[in-house]
Write a structure and sequence with these properties.
Elements lengths: L2 E13 L3 E12 L2 H21 L8 E15 L5 E19 L2 H12 L6 E7 L3 H27 L3 E8 L8 E2 L28 E13 L1
Antiparallel strand pairs: 1-8, 2-4, 2-5, 3-4, 5-7, 6-8
Length: 220
């Protein structure tokens, strides 16, 4: 009868972020639905104009989410009973744009946004461009850890480690993100400007990621 040992290994690595992801949100409210759609389209085009002036393609600005909500406000009628009344349609357009993690480039982008014709809310994430390479490296380290543990257990039990039988691995969605800057960071004052840019000195921390894999080995 064949015997087996099942061992869970853990892989963990620290990765230096090499990509900046700028998440932007435009919002506005209009009384009529068609005016809301028109205003949304207009503001997005103005934002694309801003990034085009910074050397991006208009297609680099990607939509993450778009929706329109009906808005109401509460009020008291003549009988002092609270009622709701329609106030308009509100659009929310969430977008992202990505570029290499570079302080000079970031300073140019923030300066451009500060002087754009629209004022989106935004926050800055540092992330990794080649996430698949990181996942593969993580998997390799987890399997190595599993084998090292299996060898120790086999020796302690006085048996010999045999062939690898199976690998149980389900890589979940990992959050390859570092956020060294406040989500609601105000744009800097004029004292921080140099030649159409802001002086930035951001050194994001390495992104720590880990995962596990379960490996079954023959023993004899």
């Amino acid at each position: 009868m064949e015997k087996y040992i099942r061992v869970t290994g853990k892989g963990q690595i620290a990765v230096k972020p090499d990509l900046i992801r700028l998440n932007l949100t435009l919002e506005d409210t209009r009384e009529k639905y068609e005016d809301t759609l028109e205003q949304s389209a207009k503001q997005v085009e103005l934002l694309k104009d801003c990034f085009e002036k910074l050397g991006f393609s208009r297609e680099d600005l990607k939509t993450l989410h778009f929706h329109i909500d009906t808005m109401y406000e509460g009020y008291q009628d003549e009988n002092r009973v609270w009622q709701n009344r329609f106030t308009g349609y509100k659009f929310t357009h969430s977008m992202k744009i990505e570029f290499a993690a570079d302080n000079e480039r970031l300073g140019q982008v923030l300066y451009g946004l500060a002087h754009a014709e629209v004022s989106p809310e935004f926050h800055i994430n540092y992330t990794i461009k080649d996430t698949e390479a990181v996942k593969n490296q993580l998997l390799g380290k987890a399997v190595e850890d599993s084998k090292a543990k299996a060898v120790v257990l086999a020796e302690a039990a006085g048996v010999k480690l045999g062939e690898l039988v199976s690998v149980d691995y389900s890589f979940g969605e990992k959050n390859f993100v570092s956020e060294p800057m406040s989500r609601n960071m105000p744009l800097m004052k004029s004292a921080d400007m140099v030649a159409g840019s802001y002086q930035m000195n951001i050194q994001p921390d390495d992104i720590q990621v880990s995962d596990t894999v379960t490996v079954v080995w023959q023993i004899g």
